[in-house]
Amino acid sequence: MRAEEIIIAPVVTEKSNGELQEGKYTFKVNKKATKIEIAEAVEKLFEVKVLKVNTMTIKGKEKRVGRYVGKTSDWKKAIVTIDTNPGDKTYLAKGGKVTKISKKYKDSIDEFMGA
């Protein structure tokens, strides 16, 4: 699946707005997507470093229009925690030499909530 097919839409609620300060973003995602695919899609689309992905399947509700009863479809929600303080990573290379990696990541998703 492509990244555009995995991430469907942001979920904007009071709770999800409160979690933005902690670096947690909530998305409606494809029901067949795995946590790894969701993390890769968010990293590709928004150029951020994903630390953790929590997913849940939301069951559809029963709706009624007059005498007709129907059901809304089930959907999947993902809460993605991003790295709000991306910095240089250091590791030991061959021969015990210390090497730094400075990959440019953003510390927030600007496109969230239409910004």
Can you tell me about this structure?
- There is one protein chain.
- The chain has a single domain, classed as Alpha-Beta Plaits (2-Layer Sandwich), CATH 3.30.70.330.
- It has three helices and eight strands.
- 18% of the residues lie in helices and 37% in strands.
- Strands 1-2-6-3 form a four-stranded antiparallel β-sheet.
- The model has no long low-confidence stretch (mean pLDDT 88).
- It has helices at 3-6, 14-18, 35-46; strands spanning 7-10, 24-29, 50-58, 62-65, 68-71, 75-82, 89-92, 98-101.
- It is α+β, with helices and mostly antiparallel strands.
End-to-end distance, in Å? 26 Å
How helix-rich are the residues, as a percent range? 10-25%
The CATH architecture term is 2-Layer Sandwich
User: CATH homologous superfamily name?
Assistant: RRM (RNA recognition motif) domain
The rounded Rg comes to 18 Å
CATH topology: Alpha-Beta Plaits
Domain count, please report it: 1
Q: Please write the string of helix (H) and strand (E) elements.
A: HEHEHEEEEEE
Describe the global form.
elongated
CATH class reads Alpha Beta
Q: Characterize the biggest β-sheet.
A: 4 strands, antiparallel
What's the number of extended β-strand segments?
8
Strand residues, percent = 35-45%
Structural class: alpha+beta
Strand order of the biggest β-sheet: 1-2-6-3
Number of helical segments?
Answer: 3
Summarize model confidence as the mean pLDDT.
Answer: 88
| Poorly predicted segments | none
